[in-house]
Structures are given as C-alpha cells and as structure tokens.
C-alpha cells in the first residue's frame, strides 16, 4: 500500500517520497487491480493489538507544518492512504518530505508556495480543508480546491468561512476553488460557532496563531485531535490555551519554528478493535491507547455486558455472553463518536433485544444498512434513527465498503458472521486503517486480502 520507495542508511530505513506528478505518471503505466478482503467468520478474536497514530490528528498537524516554514519531525504517523495523500499534497506545494522508517516523517515547508495544492488530490481528502487555514496563516491568502472525504452528508464549510471573515479575511467560492484574502493582515477577534465543528475549529486555530492580537473561539469542538493540534502548535512556539474546553484563546505570535512531535493514538481505530472483540465473543488487549478517550465507548460496552479493564495505556475487552441491547446517540466529544456509529450498529445487530442508534452529526450515515440486511440483520432506518432487532447470527455475504467507517463495520460483520464474506471497495477502508488485515489476522481472524478477478470486477461494478 505504501507508495514511497525504501532504502537503507545506517540503522534507519529512509524512505524518499516521489513527487505526486512523477508517481501519477508511473501509475498510468500499470494496470491497478482492485483488491477485496475475504473473511471466514466465526473466530473469537484473542490476543493484543497495537493502535496506530490518529488519522484525524495527523492530517491537521501535517498541514499545520506549513505555518512553520521550517523542519518538523512527526512521529507515530499512521501508514494510511489519507496520510500519503496529505504528504503528496505538501510535496506538490514545494515541501520536502522524507519518511524515516514507517511511522516518522520529516517535513521541511520552507519552500512551500501559496495556491499550489493539486485540486485533483485535494478533492479526495476531507483533511485538505485545513490547507485554507494554514495558507491563510502563512501567506495572508489561500487558494484551495473543494475538499472531498466520505459521502456521509452535506459537509458545508459556512462555519470555516465565518471564522476567516471574523479574522478580517474576504472569502469567495467560485469556479470550484475557495479563495481567501486578508490584504490588511489577519486580526484576532471573537469567533462564536453556531454548530460544533472539528474542521472549523482546527481551521480557525490555524488561521489565528500568526494573526495580530487575541482570538477567542467559543463553542469549539473539544475532540482530542483539536487538543493535539494545539499542543503541536504550542511546541512550535504558538500561544494557545483552553483547547479541549468550551473556550479556546489564541495570542498571535510573529513566528513559529519546527519541532519534533508525536501524534496521539487513534481512538476510532481502538474503538473499532474493542467493538470487534465483543462482536466475536473474544478477549483483546488494545495497547497504546489513551483510556480517557475511550470512556464513552467503554461505558456502552459495559452496559451491554462486556468487561473493559484498564491497565496503564491498555484496555482489555472481553465478552463471553451474548451482548445486551442498548441505545446510542452520536454527539460531539465527549459524546459517542459518529465515526464509531456504523461499527456499534453492526454489533447491536447481534445483541439480545431491540436497540436504537440515533445519528445527530451527519444526516446520511446509514447507507451501510443495506449491506447488513444482506447478512440477515434486522435493521430499519426511520429518519435519524436505526431500529435494530438483534439476531442470533449473521451469515457471510458479498459486501461493499460504502465509506471508511462503514467499511470497518463490514469487516466486523464478516468476522462475527458464519461463513465467508467478501468485502469490496477496500480502498475506502485503507484510507484510514493501518494494516487492518494483518492486525486482525494476528488476533486469530481468518482474513486475507486478495485481488478481484476481472470477471468478478465486471459483475460488481
Ligand atoms: C471531522 C472528522 C470526521 C468526523 C467529524 C465529526 C477529520 C478529517 N474528519 O470531520 O472523521 O466524523 O469530524 O467528528 O478529522 N458543519 C456545518 N458547517 C461547517 C462545518 C460543519 O454545518 O462549516 C456541520 C457538519 O455538516 C456536521 C457537523 O457540523 O453536521 C460536524 O462536522 P465537522 O465536525 O466539521 O466534521 P469534519 O471536520 O468534516
């Protein structure tokens, strides 16, 4: 999956990144074969799994290196496609990007130029919205294509725009690009968000750290990745207080410098493994997590009859009986994360009784329900709520990974089902899960990745 080339130098493996344009040229010369995940379900997961760095923290932090114009070393970067894309974008903008081993990257943004992010790549990544705040902060203007990401709802950027305007910028969204200018320079101000948005909070921080004066953000997102972004920027010389609380205060500084920083563990990956452990009736030690980030999920799993034991930075999750029904409502942090909703709903398909899952963050996040129905799940969607009547057993089927987290839910369904499941469109899953197949196989799952034969490809497309 990783597309950089490796060479050995003393004790370290140094990986040099190829520029996006060169790689694209090379890719046109090979026929890319689709892959699928094949699972023979029914094995309880047992053993331990190490959690990778958090995608949703790595993406804004990678982009935030642009603000420093200096050399940053980021450790605990997850080896996932979204990170590859973010690094390709920075490289195309003039950054020098060097992998050191598999999970550390050195990024020098001294030569990054304004308005040079490739729109084709930007359109594939939600995290590319952060380029607007970072370009604006560094150059006083931004020119970025429309960002992409999972198709889970409308995903407007009105709150991002409101924040840039509060800082004195003018925003236009013509011809498929977002253009922001602040000819008089950015000035600190009060920003009050009408809705809690991770992206708008991160973008405001990025734009405000080098602005003149003080910025106060009210009703910000409190997610751990917002705190991680603030911690990274503070390590680079920024002055941000209150990240993770109801009010964030940013005192603008003249300049940032490079640093070495380690990304926090991925609470969504950890949650996916915790849910998979319960769904398969197994016992898994999830290592390298921040247990506090998992409190909401741990409490739900315990409510369902599972045991969650905390030892330092590990959680041991087991469930030997059939899990009981429960109700779940997604909310901004510290509420139940929308990014674990499909995985949790899949688990509830096997619970004893009728559960309700209500999605309040994104309006179009139940598309995967059709796939679960193919396996014998009894789920009905009524507006924002999925009503799930637990069944004794799911049966293997051909499934599509509709998007990243729905794809992870299909993997959980396949692991818990009887018989064989094939999951297609797995590039969606690999956007955000580092080595998921290998990690699950090490836990005893009968799972493999294989190429989709041309005839099969024609049948599914
Ligand atoms: C980020 C995460 C995504 C997660 C989501 C919610 C990344 C790369 N993605 O997405 O995995 O599911 O947070 O935890 O970190 N909204 C507006 N106006 C705006 C911005 C957002 O109305 O200007 C609404 C959205 O439509 C949505 C809600 O606010 O209903 C939350 O969206 P937001 O937190 O911004 O999500 P993302 O940053 O896109």
Walk me through this protein's architecture.
This protein is α+β, with helices and mostly antiparallel strands and 461 residues long. Helix content is 31%, strand content 25%. The protein has 16 helices and 25 strands. The strands form 6 sheets. It has a 6-stranded mixed beta sheet with strand order 1-2-6-7-5-15, with helices on one face. Strand 17 (307-311) and strand 18 form a beta hairpin. The longest helix has 13 residues, at 267-279. The chain starts with a strand and ends with a helix. The model is unreliable at 1-29 (pLDDT under 50). Bound molecules: uridine-diphosphate-N-acetylglucosamine (UD1). Uridine-diphosphate-N-acetylglucosamine (UD1) binds next to helix 2, helix 6 and helix 7.
Features:
31% helix, binds uridine-diphosphate-N-acetylglucosamine, disordered N terminus, six-stranded mixed sheet, 461 residues
Q: Could you outline the blueprint of secondary structure elements for this entry?
A:
Blueprint (H helix, E strand, L loop, with lengths): L4 E5 L2 E5 L3 H9 L6 E6 L5 E5 L4 H10 L6 E5 L5 H12 L3 E5 L3 E5 L10 H4 L7 H10 L1 E5 L12 H9 L3 E3 L4 E5 L8 E3 L5 H11 L5 E5 L5 H12 L3 E3 L5 E5 L8 E3 L4 H13 L3 E5 L7 H9 L3 E5 L2 E5 L8 E3 L11 H8 L5 E5 L10 H6 L3 E5 L2 E5 L8 E3 L3 H13 L3 E5 L2 H4 L5 H7 L3 E6 L2 H7 L1
Parallel strand pairs: 4-16, 5-15, 11-12, 19-20, 23-24
Antiparallel strand pairs: 1-2, 2-6, 3-24, 3-25, 5-7, 6-7, 8-10, 9-10, 12-14, 13-14, 16-18, 17-18, 20-22, 21-22
Helix pairs in contact: 2-3, 2-8, 5-7, 6-7, 9-11, 9-13, 11-13
The chain binds uridine-diphosphate-N-acetylglucosamine.
